[in-house]
Design goal:
- This protein is mainly α.
- It has helices at 21-29, 33-45, 50-61, 69-76, 88-93, 109-134, 137-147.
- The longest helix has 26 residues, at 109-134.
- The radius of gyration is 23 Å and the shape is elongated.
Length: 148
């Protein structure tokens, strides 16, 4: 298999349709979730009904994926990140994964390019703001007061 495994196998109910088993398998192998779902449904329809029993067994055996600190904090405040657009700070902090094959998880190259351009534009704005402050008389006065 060309997918790179990362960590343990979990189920991800927040990204799943029924129990998150396919989403967990897709995350484990770095594949797209829709591909795993198509493979499971096709397998059941084309003569592998034992996949239903494996799916149900995985539903009960696999643990839910533990939430990261950011996800836990957003859930505390009542925010959900399933369908919402990420803030610019979130976009700047998360790495961009580009997929090389259609079945791999990640962004298409064109979308990744737009995200990279957006990150650099945001950094450029922040840099301009800092330069404007550092070259202003307000910064000079503030620095002189702090020296006292």
């Amino acid at each position: 298999m060309s997918g790179r495994r990362k960590g343990e196998l979990y189920r991800i109910p927040s990204q799943g349709k029924i129990a998150g088993v396919c989403a967990g398998i897709a995350d484990y192998f770095s594949w797209e979730t829709w591909l795993i779902r198509i493979l499971v449904v096709s397998g059941v329809l084309f003569g592998m009904p034992w996949l239903v029993f494996l799916y149900v067994a995985a539903w009960f055996i696999l643990d839910k994926k533990p939430a990261t600190a950011a996800e836990a904090e957003s859930k505390e405040h009542g925010f959900t990140s399933k369908k919402s657009e990420p803030k610019s700070d979130d976009i700047d902090s998360e790495p961009i994964k580009v997929k090389a094959r259609i079945w791999q998880a990640g962004e298409p190259p064109k979308q990744a390019f737009h995200d990279i351009r957006r990150k650099f534009t945001n950094m450029e704005k922040q840099l301009r703001t800092m330069e404007r402050y550092v070259t202003s008389p307000e910064f000079t006065v503030s620095r002189e007061i702090n020296k006292l």
